[in-house]
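User: Hello! I'm new to structural biology and keep hearing that structure can be predicted from sequence alone. Could you demonstrate with ABC transporter domain-containing protein? Please show me the input and the output so I can see what each looks like.

Assistant: Of course. The first part below is the input, the amino acid sequence of ABC transporter domain-containing protein. The second part is the output, the predicted structure written as tokens.
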Amino acid sequence: MVKEKGSKSLTKRDIIKGVTGLIEPGRLTALMGASGAGKTSMLNLLAGNEDVILDTMTVREALLFAAQLKLPNDMPYAEKERRAMDIAHLLNLRKSLDSIVGSALEKGISGGEKRRLSLGMEMVTNPSILFLDEPTSGLDSFTAYKVVRILSSVAYKYGRTIICTIHQPSSEVFNIFDDTIILAEGQVLFHGPVQSMVPYFGALGYHCPTHFNPADYLFMEVLHQGATSATEDTFDFIAGSKEDEKSRAKAREEESGRIKGLLSAWNGSAINQKMTYAITSGATINTGVHESAIQQTAGFWIQFALLAKRAGYNAMRNKLILKGKLAQTVFLSLIVGLIYLQLGNDAKSVQDRQGSLFFIVVQALFGSLMGVLTVFGGEKVVFQREYGSYMYGLPSYFTSRWLVELPAHIVMPILSSVIIYFMVGYQLAADRFWWFALILVLVDNSGTAIGIFVSCLFADINVALAVMPMFLMPLMIFSGFFVNSSTLGWWFRWISYISPMKYGFIALAKNEFSGLQILCEPSDTGCGAGGVRTGESVITLLGFDDLGNVGFNAGILFLITGGFLLAAYVALWAAVRRSHH
């Protein structure tokens, strides 16, 4: 649905229109066309494949991961391993088996090897059909030639049907293909053997010069006739006169008419009629792949174990992230400890004690939230690719990913508690320290749950990062520190009910101030006999009297964490559902 120029309403625009084709086993087919012709859209309709692999996996692990998830449960592990190694040998990946995939920050395998590995993860199940989107994109001419040669060998030797989009291949690469489908304006312009393409268009008046790359001929002369005048068009565009604009509009109209003529010629051609007869005569009925063949074969627990193992390796190999989390925890904890170092018990220290507790809650929630948002959001493209290939289900992925993250979100808050609690000088009692540590663990995990929820809610991580402050500010403002909870109107009070910062602050405040003896001057308001004020009076001033004890607020934090995780699961389910429909 698009908004046409000069119109306020949305209108339907077809991207793919009336496409019919016949792709045979044992043949390698190139899907070609100008930019915007609908190549990737058509391939996504058929397969929806992406070239995305987790960057910390080795080549061996990636192939075995695919084999264990997609091959039948009753197949022995040794057979699955042999299948994976055979694929590595076929794709010339044996020398790179123990090299990591790598990323922009860490060197790994080459671009060509990554393309072949992505192909191998699909081939490990010995599929009848392979759909590949731009398998040679970004590769030098020799590596591109090797990749396409491997695809041709697989199609010919194993009788597989392989179709891939490709943009202006070299003549050597183009001649490896058996068939080509050429799209224009979302419709088929030509579909047949590559050797028939030049004679077909030659008969329509588009003659290919001798010793000219047929792919270049297709793009320069057939799809974009008159491209040699591009320099003059650029000069005219810079001049910007009305006559130039009219001339360009007329040229575009003529080009559109020419393409429509070529489309009409194809519809009436003998090649098309022969192919259409083969399809409509019933010869190809019931020869496709059955739907059961694309469903994941591994059970939940196998998926869970493999995903948890991979996520664990990923966490350990991302040493920079691990060191960053540790350094952040220690550094921020020391900063808090030094700012509020050894608070006293006099009236002046009450504000500092309150401020330290609230700052600790905010720091715990924000630190975990932003960390998981970037990591989880960055890995989501890998999940979408693998889920789209039916490698595993959503429940196994979500639960394993969360449980692997959990230890770090327990250890780090406890480490922070050890540093902060004794540096600041809170009440020296074992039970109060462990309640303090537990509250920080729960706040940290609620921040993690919110981060996962937001990263699942938005497809683009940059959008998620931009929206996050708008989401967090109301939760922080109505947490009970800036505004007294008892004075909130009903129209704002509901926000405080879902704020983990509120329950974390209440729990820490009650844990610290209950039973605390605050020294005061007898002339001070609320000062009791002997110049002592109780910490309970501070809790009353904060409006926390009727908001439950420490355990109650800890339980609410636990429920908030579970609620946001459930919301994240639903958001991720909705996202993958949209992408598959």
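User: So the tokens describe the shape?

Assistant: Right, they're a compact way of writing down the 3D structure. Reading them back into a model, for example: The domain at 13-294 is CATH 3.40.50.300 (Rossmann fold).
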